[in-house]
Design a protein that fits this description.
By secondary structure, the protein is mainly α. The chain has 17 helices and six strands. The protein has two domains: 32 residues; 363 residues, Orthogonal Bundle (Flavocytochrome C3, Chain A, domain 2). The termini are far apart. It binds heme C (4 copies).
């Protein structure tokens, strides 16, 4: 190649490279420019009204208000007819709907079936920014008040104050049950990393809990660990049952939406992800980068939620998610069939003339265990996606224990 030709190429290539470099740098900076509109510090430290934040954080307010689109709320009974059998004797058997957006919590709770109001004022704990103020106002009596006694005091759904300190907009844990559970685990609350906080703000509500006997204080049963077997062991040791199944006579415990517990130790959590990475991806508003405040299925905006890391095509990824979720549903249905069968086998045994009481008691214990593992999956949102291996493992345990319960019940009446 002649040196003139080389010079000519260089003459064209160098400016092109410089322009490209500048564009890349601009894009990079632009994407790292986190939107923190000010002025910070003017809001009241206990501001429960999210609309008050709108003037300072308009992009976040707009994003938050898009949650209004998320209105679907199908009943869980539609695709899981067995719920009526397994929840018999408990409020959930009367009504159990899929969740919808954070904006509708007050509206939804005020129209729940009366059978579900027994838990009292505690029901509001995950539904409103006003909860910390009510806990302050009523002290420990808050947990003992009835649903109807307190319902008119709540007007604000989940909002800014639930996750932020209005003075600094730092992430903040506002619910005592989570703080107490972490302290009992020996965690120093001043040393939680930012990445951990991006999950812990969700773990204030997207966790399983129970009402401590007598005080009815909301408590996270995590002292032995957060996995299904640890929590069952915790309840067994405490001798705790939430209700007695009217057909089988077994004392049962009820898991609730254990998204956080399930997510821990999953592939994604081990890779360092937090809930916010998938559920609050960065979006660009004008020339600013804003964490999306539309809490929804990440599959609705898969480009932002997943494709940053999974750069192969989104159809392939969606297919993977579908496979995980349909395997979960299939195994869940099989495990549920085993548990329902156990319930009626035990009922028959209990009515038999010469029933073997030892075997009957053992069958009931197995029903308690099988239902716990099954229900842990049923009530956890995401249909197994948050931790596929653990989910299928729990369902296998449920199936095995369900069959063993039926077997023992039959032996008990032989
Ligand atoms: C103060 C309690 C609370 C906090 C904090 C909270 N959530 Fe929620 N979340 C709820 C409740 C309650 C619902 C169901 C609302 C309904 O159906 O009325 C819900 C619903 C959702 C839904 C919608 C489900 C659907 O089917 O559309 C998603 C997604 C979600 N939350 C994700 C998150 C994430 C991610 C975080 C943390 C960044 C978080 N939530 C923090 C209580 C909370
Ligand atoms: C369910 C919890 C939750 C609620 C409710 C919530 N936020 Fe956030 N917010 C977060 C998380 C998580 C982040 C990301 C923080 C981080 O990574 O530093 C965030 C980030 C922010 C930021 C920092 C900039 C950014 O986009 O990352 C601002 C400002 C903000 N939120 C404003 C608001 C306002 C205003 C409201 C009420 C209208 C609100 N948030 C409600 C969880 C929440
Ligand atoms: C790796 C990405 C990822 C992470 C991290 C993640 N999720 Fe999810 N989440 C999903 C996917 C995918 C679904 C299934 C959505 C569907 O079926 O449409 C889901 C579903 C949900 C749902 C039900 C939403 C609906 O519309 O059905 C809730 C609530 C939820 N996740 C909360 C959480 C919480 C709380 C955390 C942290 C403890 C978390 N997720 C962490 C990807 C993630
Ligand atoms: C911050 C990066 C990141 C984001 C965002 C992310 N993932 Fe992943 N994902 C990973 C890593 C890392 C692995 C582990 C990969 C490996 O070991 O090969 C993984 C593994 C997976 C796997 C296989 C492992 C399993 O649990 O079955 C699936 C499926 C998956 N991701 C789906 C998703 C979906 C769907 C989303 C969006 C809702 C998402 N991911 C968002 C980083 C991410």
């Amino acid at each position: 190649m002649s040196s003139i030709r080389v010079k000519r190429i260089a003459l064209i290539a160098i400016p092109v490279l410089i322009v490209l470099l500048v564009v890349v740098l601009l894009l990079f900076n632009h994407n790292n420019n986190i939107d923190l509109e000010g002025p910070i510090g003017e809001l009241d430290a206990n501001e429960a009204n999210s609309a008050a934040f709108a003037q300072f954080y308009p992009a976040h307010w707009d994003s938050y208000m898009t949650n209004a689109d998320n209105i679907e709320q199908p009943s869980h009974f539609e695709h899981k007819p067995y719920l009526k059998d397994i929840y018999a004797g408990f409020g959930f058997a009367a009504e159990y709907n899929e969740p919808r957006s954070h904006l509708y919590t007050i509206e939804d709770i005020l129209k729940i079936d009366p059978a579900r109001k027994k838990a009292g004022a505690s029901c509001f704990t995950c539904k409103s920014t006003q909860v910390p103020a009510m806990m302050e106002k009523y002290g420990d009596d808050y947990y003992l008040m009835s649903f109807d006694d307190i319902k008119d005091e709540f007007t604000e759904p989940i909002g800014c104050l639930d996750c932020h300190d209005p003075k600094t907009m730092d992430l903040k844990i506002s619910r005592p049950a989570l703080k107490e559970a972490l302290e009992r685990q020996g965690r120093d609350l001043d040393k939680l990393s930012q990445q951990e906080m991006r999950s812990l703000v969700c773990a204030q509500c997207h966790v399983t809990y129970y009402f401590y006997p007598e005080t009815k204080r909301i408590t996270f049963p995590w002292d032995k660990g957060v996995k299904a077997d640890n929590i069952l062991e915790y309840y067994d040791e405490l001798g705790y049952s939430e209700w007695v199944h009217p057909n089988s006579g077994a004392g049962l415990v009820k898991p609730r939406h254990a998204e956080y517990e399930t997510f821990l130790e999953s592939t994604h959590q081990s890779a360092g992800l937090s809930c916010a990475d998938c559920h609050m991806p960065y979006t660009v508003v004008g020339n600013k980068k804003v964490s999306s405040h539309k809490w929804q299925s990440p599959l609705n905006n898969i480009e932002q939620s997943c494709m940053n890391c999974h750069r192969n095509n989104s159809d392939w990824l969606l297919d993977r998610v579908n496979t995980i979720q349909s395997q979960t549903k299939q195994s869940q249905d099989l495990a549920a069939a085993a548990v329902v069968n156990a319930i009626y086998e035990i009922e028959k045994a209990a009515q038999a003339a010469n029933v073997n009481e030892t075997k009957l008691a053992e069958a009931r214990k197995l029903h308690r265990e099988a239902q716990w593992y099954l229900d842990f999956i049923i009530v956890t949102n995401g249909y197994g996606f948050h931790n596929p291996t653990e989910t299928l493992n729990n369902l296998n345990i449920a199936m095995d224990k369900g069959y063993k319960a039926s077997q023992l019940a039959r032996e008990a009446r032989d």
